[in-house]
Design brief:
- The protein has 406 residues and is an alpha+beta fold.
- The strands form four sheets. It has a four-stranded antiparallel beta sheet with strand order 2-1-3-4. Strands 6-5-9 form a three-stranded antiparallel beta sheet. It has a two-stranded antiparallel sheet with strand order 7-8.
- The chain is elongated.
- The longest helix is centred in the first third of the chain and has 34 residues.
- Strand 1 and strand 2 form a beta hairpin.
């Protein structure tokens, strides 16, 4: 079974390219803003049509397609790595059932599962990364209210038009005039947008977040599909749920337990259920393996394999999670966070740090000293907050989650 750290290393090359895609767009806009700011009104008018011809946008889309293609290949490689890891751990079950454990590449049923998981994960990645699905969320920076959804081309044009207008109208402080536009680009980041035809709703989330979730979902689906096929081939009659520290509260009570197939089906369909030892559990709303769940259900032959964790060890993990971190805010009010809640707060800090890094890089490229100073101060403060919070919670910092790639 791959550890969380191994999974992070596995998906990092894809996430790095996603960061590069975002910075490519932001820095291309910053280059144009800088160029326009150094021109006279007559120069800008002469070049206005050139900027509006779309050559920059075509270059962006071409590079976006190239990087996306590289990531698709990496996604398929990730799925095959996860599948192989699942299969190698199953050999004892084949031996117990006196069934031949053939190499993975010779197991036709397993190859069919892997191909299906490759296609689903790569296709989903391609859909959320396609240029027509990408948007900037243009907000009122005072109220935070969403005012518009702009395509990459529209966001580029908005920035260029604003810059041209600032020069031609003779604005005395060009950098100040452009500051809100640049901040809007950073505040939004590139989002992927989905239109839900059944209810007419529009959903959006940051592209880097969507890609990470896509990869983790693909890894979970692959592990579960492999486990299901292994179960068929060896005649498994139950499952054991994986365990991780700092679990979400709804799944923490049942992780590490073994269940018959019938009882696990009840677990997955919001019915009361019990483990192989008769310990009873109330229905859970969120099935195992979906909705950002990090747990896997490993197929077992009941009575052959002892649980990986004892009940005492599982109880100790629960106590550590519950102990968490207690702090007093500036108003003197005390707050308590479980370790799971602390990890969620860590993710918020990491996003804030990435956005500050993006803003600093954008402002420096646009040669906007005031904005660069703002993001530099923000970056230092967020880094300090992140380190202090993580130390107080006794959690490891994950600096790979705070980096951007240019």
């Amino acid at each position: 079974m791959l550890t969380d750290n191994q999974i992070e290393k596995l998906i990092q090359p894809v996430l790095n390219r996603q960061s590069k895609i975002e910075m490519m767009v932001l820095l291309k806009i910053a280059d144009r803003v800088k160029d326009i700011g150094t021109m006279t009104p007559s120069d800008v008018k002469a070049l206005e049509q050139l900027y509006k011809s779309g050559s920059d946008v075509r270059a962006i889309n071409k590079e976006l397609a190239r990087l996306t293609k590289l990531n698709e290949r990496q996604v398929r490689k990730i799925i095959r790595t996860v599948a192989a890891d699942n299969y190698k751990d199953a050999e004892p079950y084949y031996n117990y059932r006196k069934r031949r454990y053939v190499p993975l590449e010779q197991n036709a049923a397993m190859q069919s599962v892997i191909s299906a998981m490759e296609s689903v994960t790569a296709s989903t990645y391609k859909n959320i990364s396609r240029s027509t699905a990408l948007r900037f969320l243009w907000r009122d920076l005072t109220t935070g209210a969403l005012t518009e959804l702009l395509s990459m081309e529209e966001a580029y044009q908005r920035a260029v038009d604003t810059a041209i207008q600032a020069v031609t109208l003779g604005v005395t402080d060009y950098n100040t005039a452009m500051q809100k536009t640049l901040q809007n680009l950073v505040s939004s980041g590139i989002n992927t947008v989905e239109y839900q035809s059944e209810n007419g709703r529009i959903t959006h989330q940051r592209l880097d977040t969507a890609v990470r979730r896509n990869l983790l979902d693909g890894i979970r689906m692959t592990s579960q599909a492999m486990q299901d096929e292994i179960g068929k081939q060896v005649g498994a009659d139950g499952v054991e749920l994986s365990v991780h520290a700092m679990s979400a509260p709804d799944h923490e009570p049942i992780q590490g337990h073994q269940f018959t197939e019938a009882e696990f089906e009840k677990c997955q369909t919001q019915q009361a259920f019990e483990d192989v030892n008769g310990i009873q559990f109330a229905p859970i709303a969120r099935p195992i393996g979906v909705w950002n769940c990090r747990h896997f259900a490993y197929n077992i032959i009941i009575g052959v394999q002892s649980p990986t964790y004892t009940l005492e060890q599982l109880e100790e993990l629960k106590k550590k999670n519950a102990k968490g971190y207690t702090y007093t805010d500036s108003k003197g009010q005390e707050h308590h966070l479980s370790l799971y809640e602390c990890t969620q707060r860590q993710r918020q800090y990491e996003l804030a740090i990435r956005k500050a890094r993006e803003g600093k890089a954008l402002a420096e490229r646009a040669e906007n000293d005031k904005l660069s100073e703002y993001y530099n101060k923000r970056l230092k403060q967020k880094m300090t907050d992140y380190q202090t919070f993580s130390s107080n919670c006794k959690l490891k910092t994950q600096y790979s989650r705070t980096k951007i790639v240019i």
